Amino acid sequence: MTTSPLPTRPRPAVATAPAPLPSAPRHRRAGFLREQISGWGMIAPAAVLLLLFVFLPAILGFGLAFTNARLISPRPVEFVGTDNFARLFADPTFWRALLNVTYFAVVVVPVQSALALAMALLINKKFRGVNFFRTVYFLPVVTSMVVVSLLWLFMYRKDGLINELLSTFSFGLIQGADWLNDPATAMPAIIALSIWQAAGFHMIIWLAGLQSISGELYEAAQLDGASPWHQFRYVTWPGLKHTRSLVLVTITIQALGLFDQVSVMTQGGPLDSTTTIIYEAVRSGFKQQETSYASAISLVFFVLVLLISAVQRYLTREKD
Amino acid sequence: MNKRFTRILATSITAAALVSSLGACGKGSASATSEGSNEITMWTHNAGNVEELAAIQGVVDAYNQSSDAKAKIKVQAFPQDSYNDSVVSAAAAGKLPCIVDIDGPNVPNWAWAKYLTPLKLSTDLSANLPSTVAKWEGETYAVGHYDVALAMLARASDLKAAGVRAATIEQPWTEDEFQDALTKLKALGKWEYPLDMGTAGSGEWLPYGYSPLLQSFGADLINRDGFQTADGVLNGDKAVEWAKWFRGLADQGFMATKSGKDSTQDFLNNKSGVLYTGSWAADKARASLGEDLVVMPTVDLGNGPKIGGASWQWGVTEGCANTDAAMDYLSYSLKPENMAAVAKATGTIPATEEAAALIPEFAEGGANRIFMDFSRKYAVMRPETPAYPFIATEYGKAVQDVLAGADPQGALDKAVKAIDANIKSNGGYKN
Asked: How many beta-carbon contacts under 8 Å exist across A and B?
């Protein structure tokens, strides 16, 4: 997720592309072949690594989902058909996890992308010290999620920083909740922290998108007397079309894969109110040694992400 | 043209280098545990515990230098959090070292998985604390240098102020007395919660700390007759009674449903009056409170006080090429002076009387002697079944759910259902 390429400025159609050499076609073919070879050569390292460490384990995992394989066991692995899936779909904790993830995604996707856009608009101006703000907004992103979660764990305590602030600024009127220990507030607390941590990353993507919009368009709009709102509505927003779908897809996938915060802060509790699909997979696979069941959860998760991404892709497609 | 050719060349060289370095990585990790003809490797979990590691290293060095050492022992330490994963992946790759250390309750699981081989030691283990000898199906698979014990700590001055007698081994607190003591302590108004049960703990603490309370009520984690089902035991009336009692402690304002991060420190900072913890906290508490510290046995909830038995222990792996030397080293390490050195470094209960005699705190009349008595009198082993790691996760979740306000019967039924399904899917964990 974090390595998604930033959208580059649309390449001007002229000049930079290497002009075809006015030489004989025979020469061009030889050069073409060499380019092909060097192209494949450049892909090879990444492709081999991906194949070895992503695709192969994934395929093995899908296979394991239909067996009774265990992490530690002297018993031979047997094919058990769809037993694991039957158990999974009958497990209330799985449905709760699915519900939690949906809740998380439905809040995080719009709020985080809007916040990131707002931040990007704010720092897309030229004034003294803009780099300072860019750095500050980006700071949480370069901090590891585990570290962030540990820090917020302390802030969310009943006598932690957040409740102290609430109490001080309301002159003792508001007594904050025991945030992470109450089924009603645990998920919202995790949502707030997640947005705070990750918004900076998407701010950078929005910023790249904003900077690819030609300044001439704004000049023209100003000459026509467009208000700032109209400039945003009719110049900026349409100009961010591609950035928008990228941000949407990356935040959604990130939200569906919620794990670090839960693992560090709540371990899925209280009363399953913060458990997630990935957390359940890790718990069954490693803590409970049920490799095959964890594989089944992962397979279901994979299909889910695939479906949601496909739907988003379809909805944000180029409508020609 | 030349430039392009160089580029292709460079790419292929990089690719080749990458592939070969990958291969080298594989080889590298394999050779990490390869053992010379007269060298055997020993893995330990205490990379993060400087004192314990130094004590173990001291024992190993002494063995290596002794004239009748059958092999040279090489110690490799891992951080505790990743230790089990390291062993499991090494086992999957067939690269286990000769000697491993193991958390006691996991021994049957590893023995069942054929990681461990039964011990054949020249040392007589019959006088060792029973909880430091791990048996499964009649064979001894691991042995420990020490154990730890659960206890309750309080200040004598607080008990006196509240008019509560201190519990003793002869006369532990009963459920009613405990209730009465907490009521009186709370009435002192010194603390928001007079009792700290360490409810913020996770992982193995949950079954270690709270299953003895369940057992004192007369329930258990599993029916120990055959270890085939938890039904009627973990969800029976007595278990439900335990769950209601435990949740009741929170409901009455006696304890927090989630205690502070460091319960010992909170107790020393006077944020709680009675601390339920292990023997490991005693030295620190005594250093800070001195004579005012009272160490009490846990509550008798109907079937006498219970505490969990078994801490980290040592075993020999099935694939060890030089079992003889491994057994010889373990026998050597069980000499009283070696056990005393390790127990002293870790502040734990030494496994034998001979070793205890060498540590003033644990010798007859010593300040920590009481923990040895707890261990001898109250220790209940966590169920000796390969299903234990699974049972531990399910019970731990049930505890957390009960504390969070779940219906006790429902939470326990859920755990029983999962445990029974797991045992069944593993063919009853029979060999």
From this structure: 77
Average pLDDT, chain A: 83
**Chain A residues lying within 8 Å of B422, measured CB to CB:** 288, 290
**pTM value?**
0.80
Looking at the structure, tell me whether residues B254 and B399 fall in a common domain.
Answer: yes
Task: Report the share of chain A in percent with pLDDT over 70.
Answer: 90
| Inside any domain, residue B82 | yes
Q: Is B290 exposed, middle or buried (0-12, 13-18, 19+ CB in 10 A)?
A: exposed
Instruction: Please check whether residues B271 and B126 belong to one and the same domain.
Output: no
Please work out, in degrees rounded to the nearest 5, the angle formed at the alpha carbon of residue B293 by the alpha carbons of B292 and B295: 145
| CATH code of the domain in which B142 resides | 3.40.190.10
User: What pLDDT, on a 0 to 100 scale, did the predictor assign at position B26?
Assistant: 39
In which band, very low, low, confident or very high, does the pLDDT at A32 lie, cut at 50, 70 and 90? confident
Give bridge partners of residue B274 from the DSSP assignment: B154, B195
> Chain A residues within 8 A (CB-CB) of chain B?
31, 34-35, 37-38, 41-42, 44-45, 48-49, 52, 68, 70-75, 87, 154, 178, 181, 183, 267, 269-272, 283, 286-290
Of A31, A75, A183, the CB nearest to B426: A75
- Token pair 């899917």 is found at B425
pLDDT band at A319 (very low <50, low <70, confident <90, very high): low
pLDDT digits (tens, 9 = 90+) for A184-224: 888 999 999 999 988 889 998 998 998 888 888 888 888 88
Statement: residue A8 has pLDDT above 50: no
CA–CA separation, B316 and B36 (whole Å): 17
Q: What is the ipTM of this complex?
A: 0.74
With respect to residue B135, please indicate whether it lies within any of the assigned structural domains. Answer: yes
CA–CA min distance B424, chain A (Å) = 12
Count up the domains in chain B and report the number. 2
List the single residue in B19, B389, B404 with the smallest CB-CB distance to A48: B19
Q: How much is the pLDDT for A104?
A: 92
- What is the per-residue pLDDT for B128? 86
Residue B3 maps to a domain: no
Q: A213 CB contacts (<8 Å, ≥6 apart)?
A: A235, A236, A239, A240
Of A45, A74, A87, the CB nearest to B113: A74
Residue B140 and residue B69 share a domain: yes
Nearest CB neighbour to B18, from listed A45, A271, A272: A45
Domain match, B46 and B81 both: yes
Nearest chain A Cα to B407, which residue? A271
B369 within some domain: yes
User: Are A289 and B389 an interchain contact pair (Cβ–Cβ within 8 Å)?
Assistant: yes
Considering only residues A245 and A49, tell me which one the structure prediction assigns the higher pLDDT.
A49
* Cα–Cα dist B366/B386, whole Å: 37
A3 pLDDT more than 80 = no
By residue range, what is the domain housing residue B144? 32-148+311-377
Q: Which of residues 249-308 of B touch A (CB under 8 A)?
A: 257-258, 261
One domain for residues B322 and B348: yes
C-alpha pair distances (Å), A164 with each of A187, B240, B266, B270, B421:
20, 38, 19, 21, 46
Check whether residue B393 and residue B354 sit in a common domain. no
Cβ contacts (< 8 Å) between B91 and chain A: which residues? 72
DSSP state of B63: H
pLDDT of the residue at B24: 41
